[in-house]
């Protein structure tokens, strides 16, 4: 295989072994205590001016302050793993049953630790650099928790950057676009309540079966019914349940779960409102009670033009292969939330065309991306903040 210069930037053995250590001990969203402690210890060795811990639960931030006026530039990675059993057999596979680093956040953390090591060598010439390890990305709670932490004011950035590795794209290729980049998303759990009865006398109860069926039919078609631009929004059925698994009972309850996604927060909120309205209307017509619960709210990710220009300059200068991102991604990234406080730039870094997909049980972050990831972040950081001569 011929490696391009960009891909041939190998990470140190220490960073690869850090990545493998993190991979062995994944922690779930909101529970990242040990991971955060490990990261804080790693950062300590890279001599930042300040380390903040416990940010919005378990977030950790290292601050490199030049002492000279200039912008604050934040780089973000994620601390959490997933509640999925890993099936890989390599030596660094998860040691914790039912939990795995199957989104590559272990690799993103290694990249940020590599950036910290570069900053220890040569600090920014102006402004400040903040390396943020955020908790609970997978549930969409962590970024909001970090921003709500009153200490966030001390690290409030002008620019915020993040990367996500992405299987399906050539290894080491960089993809970015200005404007909408990742969809807004939220889970809606709908509970329909009627009345159970003996299966021999269904007429004595009130089964939600037909309303459940109509909702399962109608909800995914809602964007089209409402005349949304094709590709800008979608409602996906993710789970449904009717009564209990018993032949003797006519059911009195049903659950239907959907995720409601859209290209921006406004359209997503509108679609969510319409989904609830439809469920309420059909439930009432059927004489049923209806309740809603909302879960895992992700803001849409919007890439700022100036931030994208910095990412593109880095990719060009470093000789990275480029992939065209024509349409925004339909998946969501909690990083979108930082768009409310900073000029944000998120880019994807290809994990290989045939690589197992994110959240698949055999996914593993490609170590070849650690060096290129560091190079991208460092270039962007120096581009904005410059470099002091090493001591
Ligand atoms: Zn993920
Ligand atoms: Zn992820």
Relevant terms:
about 400 residues, alpha/beta, Aminopeptidase, Alpha-Beta Plaits, 8-stranded mixed beta sheet, 4-stranded antiparallel beta sheet, 10 helices, 16 strands, binds zinc ion
Description:
This protein has 391 residues and is an alpha/beta fold. The protein has 2 domains: 13-182 and 300-385, Zn peptidases (Aminopeptidase, 3-Layer(aba) Sandwich); 184-298, Alpha-Beta Plaits (2-Layer Sandwich), CATH 3.30.70.360. Helices cover 30% and strands 26% of the residues. The chain has 10 helices and 16 strands. The strands form 4 sheets. Strands 1-2-4-3-5-16-6-15 form an 8-stranded mixed β-sheet, with helices on both faces. A 4-stranded antiparallel β-sheet has the order 10-12-8-13, with helices on one face. Strands 7-14 form a two-stranded antiparallel sheet. Helix 1 runs antiparallel to helix 3, helix 3 (105-121) packs across helix 10 (370-385) and helix 9 (305-318) crosses helix 10 (370-385). It is elongated. The model has no long low-confidence stretch (mean pLDDT 97). The structure holds zinc ion (ZN) (2 copies). One zinc ion (ZN) binds next to loops.
């Amino acid at each position: 295989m011929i490696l391009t210069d960009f891909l041939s930037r190998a990470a140190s053995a220490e960073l690869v072994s850090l990545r493998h250590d993190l991979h062995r001990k994944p922690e779930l969203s909101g529970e990242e205590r040990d991971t955060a402690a490990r990261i804080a210890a790693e950062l300590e060795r890279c001599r930042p001016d300040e380390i903040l811990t416990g940010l919005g639960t378990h977030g950790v931030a290292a601050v490199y302050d030049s002492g000279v006026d200039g912008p604050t530039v934040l780089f973000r990675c994620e601390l959490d793993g997933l509640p999925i059993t890993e099936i890989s057999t390599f030596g660094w596979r998860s040691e914790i049953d039912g939990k795995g680093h199957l989104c590559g956040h272990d690799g993103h953390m290694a990249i940020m630790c590599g950036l910290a090591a570069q900053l220890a060598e040569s600090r920014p010439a102006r402004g400040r650099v903040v390396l943020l390890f955020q908790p609970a990305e997978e549930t969409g709670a962590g970024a909001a928790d970090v921003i709500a932490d009153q200490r966030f004011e001390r690290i409030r950035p002008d620019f915020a950057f993040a990367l996500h590795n992405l299987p399906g794209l050539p290894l080491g290729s960089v993809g970015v676009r200005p404007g909408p980049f990742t969809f807004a998303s939220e889970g809606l759990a709908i509970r329909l309540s009627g009345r159970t009865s003996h299966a021999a006398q269904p007429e004595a109860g009130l089964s939600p079966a037909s309303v459940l069926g109509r909702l399962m039919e109608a909800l995914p078609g809602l964007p089209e019914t409402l005349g949304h631009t094709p590709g800008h929004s979608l409602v996906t059925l993710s789970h449904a349940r009717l009564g209990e698994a018993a032949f003797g009972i006519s059911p009195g309850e049903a659950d239907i779960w959907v995720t409601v996604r859209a290209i921006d927060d406004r359209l997503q909120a509108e679609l969510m409102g319409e989904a609830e309205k439809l469920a309420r209307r059909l439930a009432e017509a059927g004489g049923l009670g209806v309740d809603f619960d909302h879960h895992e709210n992700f803001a849409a990710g919007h890439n700022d033009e100036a931030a994208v220009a910095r990412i593109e300059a880095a990719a060009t200068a470093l000789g990275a292969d480029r992939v065209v991102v024509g349409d925004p991604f339909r998946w969501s990234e909690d990083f979108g939330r930082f768009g409310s406080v900073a000029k944000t730039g998120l880019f994807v870094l290809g994990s290989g065309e045939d690589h197992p997909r994110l959240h698949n049980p055999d996914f593993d972050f490609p170590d070849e991306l650690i060096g290129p990831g560091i190079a991208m972040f460092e270039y962007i950081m120096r581009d904005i903040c410059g470099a002091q001569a090493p001591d």
